[in-house]
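User: tokens in, sequence out, please.
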């Protein structure tokens, strides 16, 4: 039940806002992030670099560019926009992905992205790569 309420709060905050406010926390996204895991919202169906024999790296630049590398190969790139959602999480929107968005939260050196599109919700976790 908590998961359903969480999803509804995130979706309503994403689509219910009349105006998005740039997040001051968006600067925390800047840098490189290494993939830790992807799980269904209930914590099941988890995948990791070890289980998939692959790696993934996210790169957020200070000029609002977003890159996804899989096994050191660029898979996609876009301009990103980070916005407050009215909760502790923020919303990430990508220009090249048909209006799709992720909810994000930062805890120490861990980035959690919750996919808000599609019928299946995936929770992706990444750890910051220290320079």
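Assistant: Sequence out:
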């Amino acid at each position: 039940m908590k998961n359903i309420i969480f999803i509804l709060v995130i979706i309503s905050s994403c689509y219910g806002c009349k105006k998005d406010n740039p997040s001051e926390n968006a600067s925390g996204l800047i840098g490189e992030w290494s993939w830790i895991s992807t799980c269904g919202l209930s914590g099941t169906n988890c995948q990791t670099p070890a289980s998939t024999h692959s790696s993934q790296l996210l790169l957020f630049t200070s000029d609002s560019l977003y890159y996804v590398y899989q096994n050191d190969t660029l898979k996609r790139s876009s301009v990103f926009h980070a916005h407050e959602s009215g909760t502790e999480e923020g919303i990430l929107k990508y220009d090249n992905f048909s209006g799709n968005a992720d909810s994000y939260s930062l805890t120490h050196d861990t980035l959690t992205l919750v996919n808000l599109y599609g019928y299946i919700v995936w929770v992706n976790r990444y750890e910051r790569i220290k320079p």
